[in-house]
Structures are given as C-alpha cells and as structure tokens.
Amino acid sequence: MVKKTDVLVIGAGPAGIISALTAKRYYPDKNILVMKDVKNGCIPCGIPYMFWSLKNPDDNKLGMDSLKKNNIDVILGKAVTVDRENKIVAASDGEEYKYEKLILAFGSNPIKPPIAGIDKAGIYPILKDMDYLKTVIGELKDAKNVLVLGGGFIGVEFADEFSKISGLNVYLAEILPRLLGNSFDEEFSVLAEEKLKEQGVQVLTNNKVTEFLGEKKVQGVRFDSGEEIKIDGAILGIGAVPNTDIASNAKLGIGKGKGIWVDEYMRTSDPDIFAVGDCAEKKDFYTRRRASVMLASTATAEARIAGANLYRLKVVRENKGTIAIYSTYVDGLVLGSAGLTEQSAKKEGFEIISSASETIDKHPGSLPGSNKIQVKLIFSKHSGILMGGQVVGGISAGEVINIIGMAIQQRVSMSELETLQMATHPYLTSAPTMYPIVIAAQNAAAKV
Fold this sequence. Notes:
Layout: E1 2-4, E2 7-10, H1 14-26, E3 32-36, H2 65-69, E4 73-76, E5 79-83, E6 88-91, E7 96-98, E8 101-104, E9 108-110, E10 123-125, H3 130-140, E11 145-149, H4 153-162, E12 169-173, H5 186-198, E13 202-204, E14 209-214, E15 218-223, E16 228-230, E17 233-236, E18 240-242, H6 245-249, E19 273-275, H7 296-308, E20 325-330, E21 333-339, H8 342-348, E22 352-360, E23 372-380, E24 386-393, H9 397-409, H10 414-418, H11 436-445
Parallel strand pairs: 1-7, 2-3, 2-8, 3-4, 8-19, 10-17, 11-12, 11-17, 12-13
Antiparallel strand pairs: 5-6, 6-7, 9-18, 14-15, 15-16, 20-21, 21-24, 22-23, 23-24
Helix pairs in contact: 1-7
C-alpha cells in the first residue's frame, strides 16, 4: 500500500529538519513527513568535539523533538528510487510514499582518496552517525599516535581536540603549503598553524600521503617524500562530495560541481522537487562559479528558502549565491572568513583594495579576558563594495565575521561601513572609537 503525504523530506540533518519546520510554518495545513536513514544522527559541527570537549558523546545527538512538537512525522527508512512521473519514493524496506512536493536533503559522502592501504582497520572517514562515531571514539581512546589527514576546517578542529588528550601524539598532514589555505590569506592561516604547534601538534604541510602501512590494521603512513611515521589510527578529514545517486537515477539535472542543479528557489529541474544542503549545487556569490561549500549554516539558509517556496514563490526568499562564511576555534583562537580572500579575488581578476585593523575586543583593554582582534577587508577598487573579510581574535570574532557576512550579502559599501552604527559595551566589544570593522573600512578609504 502506498502511503501519502503532502511534503516528503528525505534526510534528517540540519537541512532536512529546517526544510520541514519552515514548510510547516508557511503551510500549516500540509502533512509533512521526514525520512531519515540513520537511527541516531549527530550535530555535524560538533563531531570533532565528541572526542574530548564533550565528556559524553551523546550530548552531540541531533534530536527530532522540534519536528514532533510541530506535528511533523519522522520515519526511519532509506530511499532508493524516485519515480517522478507518479511522484512516488520507494524505500529499501519495500515501503512506498506518494508526495505532492519532495525535498532532497541527502547530504554528502566523505572523500576516500585512492591511497594504497586506505581500507585498513583504524582508518576512519567522518560519518554523521552517532553509533559509528562512538565506536571510533572507543577504538581511538587507547591510541598512541594518530594522523589527521586534511588541513581544512574539520582537520584543524580534530587536531586541536586530539592535542588535549594526554599521551597522544598528533600529526596533521596537508598536501597544500599551508593550513586553511582555501579560506584564509597567509597572515591568518599561519596563526592557526602556530597555535596547533604550540599544543604539540606536528603539522606536516606540503606532504602527500602515498600509502598506509601495516597488515590488517594501520601501523604507519608513508609520504611522497619517502618519509614514514608510525601511527595506530587515522581520521580522514579531507572533505566530502554531494550525494546525488538517487537524483541522478531519477534524471534530475546535475551541475558542473556534481551537485544537484537548483535555481534561486532551490527547485531542481523538476518543479515539484527541491534540493538543499550538501547534495545541492552551490554557486559563488560574486563569480557564479561552482563553490564546494558544505556548511550547516549554508544548508539551513537554503532549507528556509525551499520550505518557504514549496507551493508559492516568495521573492524575498531567493538564493543569490553562496558567500562561503566560515568560523573555527583552535584552543581559544577564533578565525572567521567570509566571501573572497585577497588571494582568490586577485586570482579571479578583480581589482581590489585590501585593508586591515588591529585593536582590542574590550575597552579598556586592561579588562579581564581581553583579546587582540584583527580584521581584514577586501573591497572592489572601483565600486567600493565589500567582497570579503577575515577576522582573528577571541570569542567575539565569531560574531564579527557574521556582521561581515551580512555586509557582503547586502553589498554594503566602504563608506557605509565607515559610518556603521553599532552597540558597544566595555565587556562585550571594542571601543566605539576603535571598532575593528570601521577602522578597517577607514583604512581602505584612505587608499582610494
């Protein structure tokens, strides 16, 4: 017997949950069903912190309470096919579900590069599955030497966590010349590397892993330089690829970036099917080139657009492109990036002006807990429009980068940032006379 629902959401990560909640808010009379294929999911951004900061890994569980409170049904099942003509989704257990509107929130699959020996025991890709991750934690707790492969955000955060575990030697390997190289200019990314080294992490940049050594279980790793080190565990933190198999088999359009093609309203090539989150194609806010951005914050923004526009288009809820806004935390050091870096802007051929500021995040700076905060802004030379920004400092830097992200999204100009009106307080912000975003904008204006 085919079960019927108005809206079917496949996937119960952040994108799937927010899609369903938004749809219910805008279309309260519609029945909404969420299908999840992992019994116990987890909060994606919290995965690294399950290994030390969270004393109980279950605290990172992704709950379904918000769905149930809003009368949204949740079932455990794995979708295998989408019959677009009849609007039926078949699950692996033989059940079938008929929909009016379908939201695909399949997520992504971790990259597993073709390295010799990568299938040995003790080598772990990052899966958003609580039961799997608890097994990984149990198996790594007795390790002596752990390699984290990948120097992007996830790799840096894992290395930071592992460095806090007593008696554990931590190696962080990155094929590029520096950590976080795709998201920060060098003067910022080097700060993360220095912080990790202070914690005892052995950072191995410009190093390509060519083989994992050992019998059935990993015992070492070999690099392209010929150097070998002993390890008894490894985390693969080198990114992910969109999960599009079912969409491809259903003949939905696939973009050049291998994600499901979507328009500004997150509609696929089938107007009754939407795609959000990691599985959906991303385009850069300024260049319109494909962007390999996989963030829960981006996914939930897309989910709100899809949920609002399921039955009626609401022009204010359109996706104008991916800004690529990130933040990370390394032992008290917060780094944030939004939009284009100076390096990426020049690579694209933009004529730019870059400027920086450095101040203290409290006033007076002698207040307890004060931290230095540095801001770098990237402007179009001719229009003065903000195109990117980076920040490093204490906890407040995490919200400063969100201000910069909003300014990019709204195409705020240099002169508007110079006259930014902000709330300040001695314990909460920099002084109004030395607000870092304003000072950086003034420094840019001085170059015009």
